[in-house]
Amino acid sequence: MSAETDVIIIGAGAAGLSAAKELSRLGKTHTVVEGSHRIGGRAYSEEIASGVWFDLGCAWLVEGAANPFVPIADELGITVGKDKNDLFKGENLRYRRSGTPLNDAQRAACARYYDHCDDAISAAAKQGRDVPLSDVVDLENEFAVPFMGGTASAWGLDLDLVSTVDYGTSYGELGFPVVNGYGNLVAAWGADVVVPLNTRVERIDWSGPGVTVETPKGTIKGRAALSTVSTGILASGDILFAPGLPDWKIEAINNLPMGTENKMGVYFDRDVFGEEGHGFYATWNDNGNGNMAKVEAGVMGLNTAVVFVGGRHGIWLEKQGQQACHDFAVDRIADVFGNDIRKHVDRSIVTAWDTEPWTRGSWACARPGHAHQRANLARPVDDRLFFAGEATMNGVQGTCHGAYLSGIRAAKQIATQLNAGS
Fold first, then answer.
1. Is residue 115 part of a domain?
2. Range(s) of the domain holding residue 406
3. pLDDT confidence of 193, banded at 50, 70, 90?
4. What 8-state DSSP symbol labels residue 345?
5. Pairing mode, if any, of strands 60-61 and 176-177?
6. Angle at 57 between CA 165 and CA 231, to 5 degrees
7. Which of 2, 41, 153, 176 is most exposed, with the fewest beta carbons within 10 Å of its own?
8. 274 and 168 both lie in a single domain
9. Is the peptide bond before 216 cis (omega within 30 degrees of 0)?
10. pTM for the complete prediction?
11. Cβ(261)–Cβ(310) under 8 Å?
12. Terminus-to-terminus CA distance in the chain, angstroms?
């Protein structure tokens, strides 16, 4: 491979694909390279049973109708569960404590505690107190366990590692599910972008005019480069920059580490949930054995449950292997629906995002005191090295459509710079 182009785009996830499409619209040539065997990045669907899809990464169109992938899905004729938008609202969440549903008084107390936590975090964020969540919430409350576990899953890091300001800037309800997979939606939308696969970037040389990108398949020369890879990859040193990135950029990368949420999809040979059982659950035991999880049970009417666990426990469980993850998931589903479900387990798929070589985590989270680093990560270097991806966004950080929007933003920024230098 040897080519010259206006822009070299590194990574074919939602950010890289949207940047490529926007650059084409703006009349700029580009070359996209992707290290893995597929496009889509952290949007990836696999069949868990014939015709039944499981999203290993992003699964819900956050913000619902405001999500740009909703009209894209409509245009492509891909079914979105627009009637499921209320399933994750607080009043519809279901709780199982040591296998028993909370009674009305307990649910009310739990809701008050969650509201108190959110209010305390929001107040700290508005005051500019960029401290760990654990500094502002009551960790002794009887409902602290599900709150801590739910936050670790939603953010990929435990409360002592999540920034109040980063948390406070995030917005958007869970939104809509994609019946046949969000990953399949992204892949269908990006199918018209030419992407050489299995083309890992080894070195980015910006020592002279323009940029030179080296891969095992050859060298590409461009006027600018756009990196859309995760902060996990940037921090790992897998890509060598020559000269090295400036200190302020390295500081931004290192203070936006990747969190980890792992998902375990379990398919059953029959409907084990019952007509009234479909929905979202938080389940935990009071014995302190690290068995809190979120459970999504057949929300699309399918015989599939998804179990979520994040943070330190999610990473620990990943290291125990696939069988341990499978067993944990089945145990948590049994906590909700009873042990009879075990004999109807057909198969499972489990993720391993912490060790995923192309991302090294699920999404970027700002360290306490460093929520401002998202803006620094988005800043170009020498008007030749540009950066996009969910880690560069505020408000929609950690989302697929956040990555999509970042790619469009970066493409416009690059086109403006190239036009100014023509």
1. yes
2. 2-39+195-257+361-421
3. very high
4. E
5. antiparallel
6. 50
7. 2
8. yes
9. no
10. 0.96
11. yes
12. 26
CB-count exposure of residue 414 (10 Å: 0-12, 13-18, 19+): buried
When computed from its CA atoms, the radius of gyration of the chain, rounded to whole angstroms, is: 22
The answer for residues whose C-beta is within 8 angstroms of residue 318's C-beta and 6 or more apart is 260, 262, 325, 351, 352, 353, 354, 355
The Cα 410–Cα 393 span in angstroms is 11
Q: Where do we find the tokens 């599939």?
A: 304
Do the bridges between strand 203-205 and strand 240-242 make them parallel or antiparallel, or are there none, so unpaired? Answer: parallel
For residues 288 and 376, what is the distance between their CA atoms, to the nearest angstrom?
A: 40
Q: For residue range 342-383, list pLDDT tens digits in order.
A: 999 999 999 999 999 999 999 999 999 999 999 999 999 999
Task: State whether 123 and 232 are in the same domain.
Answer: no
Q: What is the pLDDT of residue 3?
A: 60
| Residues in a beta bridge with 176 | 61
Q: Looking at 312, 340, 355, which one is the last position of a domain? A: 355
Residues in the chain: 422
What is the count of structural domains for the chain?
Answer: 2
261-268 and 345-350 strand pairing: antiparallel
